[in-house]
Amino acid sequence: MRRTEAARELGGFVREHRTDGARRLRLAGILLAIGGVGLAFGVPVTIASFGATDGAPQLAGLLLGVGLVGLSLGGWRLKQALRTRQQCFDVHERGLTHRVAGTATLIPWTDIAGIDAAPADDGSLLAEARGVGFGFTIELRNARKIRVDTFTEDARELAGTIHRAVGLGQFPRGRGRRP
Fold this sequence. Notes:
- The protein is α+β, with helices and mostly antiparallel strands.
- The protein folds into 2 domains: 7-19 and 85-167, Pleckstrin-homology domain (PH domain)/Phosphotyrosine-binding domain (PTB) (PH-domain like); 24-82.
- Helices cover 42% and strands 23% of the residues.
- It has 4 helices and 7 strands.
- A 4-stranded antiparallel sheet has the order 1-2-3-4, with helices on one face.
- A hairpin with a 2-residue loop joins strand 3 (95-100) and strand 4 (103-108).
- The protein is elongated.
- The chain crosses the membrane at residues 25-47, 59-76.
- It comes from Streptomyces stephensoniae.
C-alpha cells in the first residue's frame, strides 16, 4: 500500500524507512540451523557421556546450550519477522504512517509521547548484522509501543526526526500537496 488519501492528512511526504524483513528471516534461519545442529550433536554426546567423568559432560552441555539458545533466538526472530512483515514508516510533515502487512496506522506527532533509545549500540558490524546495533521504541500516548531496530533502514535518522518533531517542535518539511 502506497500513500493513501488518509496519509495526506499528515501533510507532505518526507521519506520512508523500510524494514528489511528478508534479512530478519535469514538471521532467523541461521539461528535455527545453528540450534538444530547443536541439538543434533548434543543429544547423542549427552547419551554417550552417561557415566563418563572426563570432558564429555562439558562438551554435551556446551552443545545442548548452543542448541537451545540458537533455537530460542531463531524462534524469536522468526516470530518477529512474521509479525512485522512488510513494515515501513512513512514520515510526513505532521506525523508518521506505520505500515505493516498491508495495514496502515496514522500517527500524528501529537499522538507520540516520546522515544526511548536503547543504549545497546556498540558500533560493531556484528551487532548491526544481528539487528541489535541500534534500536528505539516509539511510545504513543495510548500506551502502545512500536519497536524499531537496525533492520529498519536509517533507523537513527528516523529516531532523530521523531525526537526533533516531538521533543523540539521542529517538524520536517515534505514535498507534494499540502491539505
